[in-house]
Amino acid sequence: MNQSEIIAKAGTFVKQALGNDSSGHDWWHIYRVTNTARKIAEAEKADVFVCELAALLHDIADEKLNASKEAGLQKVKSWLETNAVEKAKSEYVMEIIATMSYNGGNNQPMQTLEGKIVQDADRLDAIGAVGVARTFAYAGWKGHLMHDPELPAREQMTLEEYRKSGGTAINHFYEKLLKLKDLMNTVYGKKLAEERHKFMEAFLAQFYREWEV
């Protein structure tokens, strides 16, 4: 199977697995992240195949959608083995997916170009107008409050607190989303993040104006 066929099969697999997701990690999130990863990879002269495949499969392993991080990673590993992806490429994809999550800001910086690219692509989809929409979709999916003025955002969180705690949709902007602009790895990512960050700031300002009417 050539690389184009593997990418096509991965797309079909992810559509089937996440097509009905309502948490903000649906197929169209994957579609956007994959397209962005491809654009950055081409601009950075990176391994486009690795970037596309990691982008396509990254939420199959998301611990929010699995019993555990390990269970999610095993799903990805099994798919790569079943579809006879070259061992070196498969291991590279697994490394990217295993280390790209935010995890409360506790992860070490990505060490490889392809990892940086896929991480940027995923983070770009968490901010801006789409990011705002996904934040409230996820909050509703988890049963979290939209906003509670008496519940302050947390400045620092352990990995366990990040994974287990509730919080509100609005607090999520301060606990994660507004921090992402300064964590972008690539020139392309930084450029897009600036515009999307400004949109979130404008949204929050309008939200507070309407909240206190």
Helix and strand arrangement:
Blueprint lengths: L2 H16 L8 H18 L3 H10 L11 H14 L4 H13 L13 H12 L3 H15 L16 H6 L4 H7 L11 H25 L2
Helix pairs in contact: 1-3, 2-3, 2-6, 3-5, 3-6, 4-5, 5-6, 6-10, 7-9, 7-10
Order of helices and strands: HHHHHHHHHH
How does the helix and strand content classify structurally? mainly alpha
As a whole number of angstroms, the C-alpha radius of gyration is: 17 Å
**Helical residue percent?**
55-70%
Percent strand? under 5%
Q: Give the helix tally.
A: 10
Q: Assign the CATH class.
A: Mainly Alpha
The major beta sheet can be summarized as: none
Question: In CATH terms, what is the fold-level topology?
Answer: Hypothetical protein af1432
Question: What is the typical, i.e. mean, pLDDT?
Answer: 92
- Give the number of domains: 1
Distance between the termini: 60 Å
Which CATH architecture is right?
Orthogonal Bundle
Beta strand count? 0
Unreliable runs, pLDDT <50, ≥5 residues?
none
Question: What spatial form do the alpha-carbon principal axes imply?
Answer: globular
How does this structure look, described?
- The longest helix has 25 residues, at 187-211.
- This protein has one domain: Orthogonal Bundle (Hypothetical protein af1432), CATH 1.10.3210.50.
- The model has no long low-confidence stretch (mean pLDDT 92).
- It has 213 residues and is an all-alpha fold.
- It has helices spanning 3-18, 27-44, 48-57, 69-82, 87-99, 113-124, 128-142, 159-164, 169-175, 187-211.
- It is globular, with a radius of gyration of 17 Å.
